[in-house]
Amino acid sequence: MEYIKKDVIRTFSGNIEEEIIKDHALKAIGACIQCGTCSGGCPSGRRTALRTRNIIRKALLNMDEVLKDKDIWLCTTCYTCFERCPRSVPITDIIIKIRNLAVRKGNFLESHKQLSHILIETGHGVPLGNADSKWAKLRVSYGLSPLPPTTHMHPEDIQEIAVLVKETKFDKLVGYPPEPKAD
Amino acid sequence: MTEIKEQKKEHPKEELIEKPFSDLKYSLYLGCVIPNRYPMIERATRFVFDKLGIELIDMNGATCCPAPGVFRSVDKALWLTLGARNLTIAQNNKTTELLTLCNGCFGTLHEVEHEMKSNPDINQRINKILAEKNIHFDGNVNVRQIMDVLYFDFGLERLKSLVKKTLNLRVAIHYGCHILKPSSTQLFGQDPDNPTFFDEVVETIGCQSIDYQEKLMCCGAGGSLRTGFKDNSLQYTIEKLRQIRKVGVDCIVVCCPFCHLQFDLGQIEVSKFLDDGEEEFRIPVIFITQLLGLAMGYEPEDLGMIKPEEPKGISPFVPFDKLLKKIESIPLDNQVQKIKTNAKTEAKPKAKTKAKTTTKGGKKL
């Protein structure tokens, strides 16, 4: 058989759609008619290989590869597709959900993992550093307190965050604390 | 942008009573980028609100909102949990209004608020997690964004009365995404493909909003794209910057610090993508409260617009110098008026009485 090549056979073992529609608000994924309005309006798709329609298609077909597809991380969540979908499919939220499922399989970028660790440690996605950092000095030059009244000024709240992180099993999900490197 | 004035605005919320400034009170949610990278925005906002006598209460121990891009994508459960925890800080402050200066924080906190108020399942689940630390979200917090506060709580008429210096700058407005979409929960009741509130505010405080292609396109920073694929995110920015340069403006105005960062630091970062012979971008980026402060006649140093000599490598990366020079030469409106009234003393009082009667007739509904 010359026409069927092994490398085009895809796996459909997952239950991606089932997982997606567990979230009631995302049920409308079934209404997708593959018209491509989402891909047409996507500002990321204009400059990258992201094809939103294709992502939704693969999710509907339970194709495992969608969870390994790097393209799902090219969405800026600008909600253009969400607004323009003629079938009112909450596309952006579905992409977020697909990302959640991908992370559960361990498929996410190292930079996102690192940032998750920073969140657990500092309470911030973009932390200031300490009171001697250049950003703290900049704050002072504008007449502000060196540390903002967030978890930076109240480090005791980091403990509270730690409890919530444990409770949601976020730490396990993002591999925190990182395993010490063997020397 | 002449047609915006004719459009009829409908307030999506019930309360339309204009409270005096002294009655306004907000819990100020700072987020991450403002206090930790662009403190000039915090400075300008605190300064302007203080001058108006509006109370801003700090949200002690607040965390990242958490960011709707990275953290929602990694795990929605933690995102909801920390978001709800942030809302409870405003609740403990005994304020119903939470003010954010960021589209991303607004996107997160507003959606968390919406989910916690309208989805009993999620409410129960998240409150159960929060109970672990004896926290409970009661649902008495409204998440507000700075543009929404300027547009509805201040109101255009009052904004106009605050202007002491008509700047008449040519500005490029960048709305950002999460303040416009999803439209189902947007605060302004405006079409996300044709919004006007930002233009209205900017024109009310005496600047010209210059239209440009791709005005409503994302800046490229959001959705974890900047963190994950910076070069891709800069492709958005360079396209917008090219369009902005085409129309020629004095500055870019934003209402989101992440967009601010993407346009400000981004102008340095996109250098490597410039075509041969293409000039570097050096368009100052200004936050809406800074622009408002300038229009109110305050000095640039009060609004965090004079960058200190030390330390190095800090924001803003595109200097304000050119803009400040231009602003320096603009006189206060009363000085202009003085010159005008000296020229024709009779015409003035007549115009004033006329204006008064029209507002009286038109406003009392």
Could you give a quick summary of the protein structure above?
With 183 residues, chain A is mainly alpha-helical.
Labels describing this entry:
heterodimer, A: 183 residues, Fumarate Reductase Iron-sulfur Protein, Chain B, domain 2, 44% helix, B: 365 residues, Rossmann fold, four-stranded parallel sheet, disordered N terminus
Task: Describe the model.
The complex is a heterodimer of chains A (183) and B (365). Chain A is mainly α and 183 residues long. Chain A folds into 2 domains: 16-104, Alpha-helical ferredoxin (Fumarate Reductase Iron-sulfur Protein, Chain B, domain 2), CATH 1.10.1060; 110-173, no CATH class. Chain A contains 10 helices and no strands. Chain A has helices spanning 16-22, 37-41, 52-60, 65-68, 80-84, 91-104, 110-122, 134-141, 156-167, 170-173. The radius of gyration of chain A is 21 Å and the shape is elongated. Chain B folds into 2 domains: 11-148, Glutathione S-transferase Yfyf (Class Pi), Chain A, domain 2, CATH 1.20.1050.140; 155-328, Rossmann fold. Chain B is built from 16 helices and 8 strands. The longest helix of chain B is centred in the middle third of the chain and has 18 residues, at 230-247. Chain B starts with 24 loop residues before the first strand and ends with a helix. Chains A and B meet through helix 5, helix 6, helix 7, helix 8 and helix 9 of A and helix 1, helix 2, helix 3, helix 4 and helix 10 of B.
Helical residue percent band of chain A: 40-55%
Q: What is the number of strand segments of chain B?
A: 8
Extract low-pLDDT stretches of chain B. Answer: 1-11, 350-365
Quaternary status: heterodimer
Question: Got a strand count of chain A?
Answer: 0
Q: What is the average of the pLDDT values of chain A?
A: 93
Question: Could you please say which CATH topology of the largest domain in chain B applies here?
Answer: Rossmann fold
User: What CATH architecture of the largest domain in chain B would you give?
Assistant: 3-Layer(aba) Sandwich
The rounded Rg of chain A comes to 21 Å
Radius of gyration of chain B (Å): 21 Å
Task: Tell me the number of helical segments of chain B per DSSP (H or I, 4 or more residues long).
Answer: 16
Question: Which class of secondary structure composition applies to the elements of chain A?
Answer: mainly alpha
DSSP strand content of chain B: 5-15%
